[in-house]
Amino acid sequence: MERHSQREPLEYICGWCRYRGLELAIDHRVLIPFEDTGPLVELALGLPRGSRVHDTGTGSGAIALAVKAERSDLVVSGSDISPPPLSPSPKRTLGAYGLTLHLRRTTGFRTVPSTSYWRTSPTRARAQRW
User: Fold this and answer.
1) What is the DSSP string of 29-63?
2) b/e sequence 9-46, b meaning 16+ C-beta within 10 Å
3) DSSP letter at 15?
4) H-type helices in 46-125, by residue range?
């Protein structure tokens, strides 16, 4: 109650939020996704089979995760400047849904060489470096 009385968003207190039917793990290091980003997801959903989609500044991974969840045939990736490579938010969400998504840390538009990609699969419910 104290955190809520200090006007901290309920999503941060709970550690999750809903976005396009997904329950996303979030924390204070990422912005709470809002439905007004839906047109970006809709645009990606209209791409031809096997297209590549990249979400720059992915944060919670909401846009990339929504695209991958609705179109598993697309190759989806995301990048962010957050150290360490992204917050745990997208990695926890990936594990819950068994999605594969390539996430990496960047500095602006340049990739940081020492970073890894992250992926999960239905057989392993946690993110793994590769």
Assistant:
1) TSPPP-GGGHHHHHHHHTSPTT-EEEEET-TT-HH
2) eebbeeebbebbebebbbeeebeebeeeeeeebeebee
3) T
4) 62-70, 88-97
Backbone φ and ψ for 35, nearest 5 degrees, come out as -65, -15
> Can you tell me the distance from the alpha carbon of 121 to that of 27, in angstroms, rounded to the nearest whole number?
23
Q: How far apart are the first and last CA of the chain?
A: 41
C-beta separation of 49 from 75 below 8 A = no
Please identify which residue in the block is written with the tokens 């999750």: 16
pLDDT in tens, 16-72: 899 999 888 888 888 888 888 889 999 999 999 999 898 888 888 889 999 999 999
Tell me if 27 sits within 8 A of 50, measured CB to CB. Answer: no
Q: What is the pTM of this model?
A: 0.75
Cross-strand bridge partners of residue 128:
119
- Predicted local confidence at residue 31, as pLDDT: 86
**Is 116:91 a contact under the CB 8 Å cutoff?**
no
